[in-house]
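To illustrate the input format used throughout this study, we show a single complete record. The first block contains the structure-token representation of the backbone; no residue identities are included at this stage. The design step must infer an amino acid for every position from geometry alone.
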């Protein structure tokens, strides 16, 4: 039971931040600015707890090594029984400390800006249309919360809708609100292209990544990148079609690709493509980590696994069901118009009860 490299990197970053905050919260200009002081003090307290738990983790791990050495060397029956008991007790303590650190890191990340990726899955054109529907649903929700968002890349479907939409979202408590949206969103309805009125099932994937995670944990070496330019696709006559302003970046070691064609200049498209590429590399590494962790323990609510079916949108019944909490809402029209807060609140409550 050890802390993985992702957590260690985060803790190292937080240690530096802790020392910064230690100086900031005693500055007169901060103390006299009540709003800023409260915000920084709250962050200081969370990081302080994380560092304390981490120090306890290191002490427990050190003691565990001593116990394991004793088990190997000692032949005294009573002492051996005591050592085995202590080993089991300390393994449980390590698991508890890691869970506490993970929970507090999530809590500290809850204010982070995020990158959201919507991608069409099974269902062809209908999946592309549903990507557009879900994008509209989220942006209407963002408007209610006064969040800002910027489109980093959009890939149109063959007939209608989008194969992929990537957006960056900025606002208060963004990650804490959206983190449960990661996973497969399934839609059941009769497509407008269906002449015989048959019900179809399609799916899209949603990924939510906090900006701090992929910025701090992924370093890209420029020599590992292949950069290509091309003419962007879009309505005829637009500037994007007349110049090679679109950028495609390939990370050679992993084969991961990111494109951006939303801006007029290559430079701006390059910056946005780098954000997407960094996030995708992080997402790939995170998937490997989650697969390893899932063998040890499974979380009640998935917050990062884009392969897990989390929600079904059933149009004939006017129903939205979240499969993780077995909750159904019967106002699908309103839900698709951004009224999704009831579902998000239910997920938050369950997370709080389980921590």
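Output of the design step:
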């Amino acid at each position: 039971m050890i802390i993985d490299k992702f957590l260690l990197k985060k803790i190292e970053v937080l240690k530096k931040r802790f020392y910064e905050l230690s100086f900031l919260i005693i500055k007169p200009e901060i103390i006299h600015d009540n709003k800023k002081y409260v915000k920084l003090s709250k962050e200081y307290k969370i990081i302080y707890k994380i560092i304390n738990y981490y120090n306890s983790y290191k002490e427990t791990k050190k003691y565990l090594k001593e116990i394991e050495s004793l088990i190997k060397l000692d032949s005294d029956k009573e002492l051996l029984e005591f050592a085995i008991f202590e080993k089991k007790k300390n393994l449980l303590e390590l698991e508890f400390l890691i869970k506490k650190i993970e929970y507090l890191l999530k809590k500290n990340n809850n204010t982070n800006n995020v990158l959201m990726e919507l991608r069409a899955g099974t269902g062809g054109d209908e999946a592309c249309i549903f990507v557009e529907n879900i994008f509209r649903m989220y942006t209407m929700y963002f408007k209610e919360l006064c969040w800002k968002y910027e489109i980093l890349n959009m890939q149109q479907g063959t007939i209608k809708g989008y194969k992929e939409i990537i957006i960056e979202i900025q606002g208060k408590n963004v990650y804490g609100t959206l983190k449960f949206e990661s996973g497969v969103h399934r839609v059941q309805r009769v497509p407008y292209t269906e002449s015989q009125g048959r019900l179809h099932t399609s799916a899209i994937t949603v990924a939510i990544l906090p900006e701090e995670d992929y910025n701090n944990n992924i370093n890209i070496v420029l020599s590992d990148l292949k950069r290509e330019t091309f003419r962007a696709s879009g309505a005829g006559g637009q500037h994007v079609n007349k110049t090679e302003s679109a950028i495609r970046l390939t990370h050679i070691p992993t084969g991961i690709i990111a494109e951006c064609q939303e801006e007029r200049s290559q430079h701006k498209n390059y910056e946005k493509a780098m954000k997407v590429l960094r996030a995708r590399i992080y997402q790939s590494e995170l998937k490997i980590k989650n697969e390893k962790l899932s063998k040890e323990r499974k979380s009640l609510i998935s917050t990062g696994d884009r392969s897990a079916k989390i929600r079904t949108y059933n149009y004939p019944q006017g129903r939205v069901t979240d499969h993780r909490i077995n909750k159904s809402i019967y106002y699908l029209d309103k839900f698709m118009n951004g009224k999704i807060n009831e579902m998000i609140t239910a997920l938050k409550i369950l997370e709080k009860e389980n921590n």
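Structural context for interpreting the output: Residues 255 and 281 are 10 Å apart (CA to CA). Residues 34-73 form the longest helix (40 residues).
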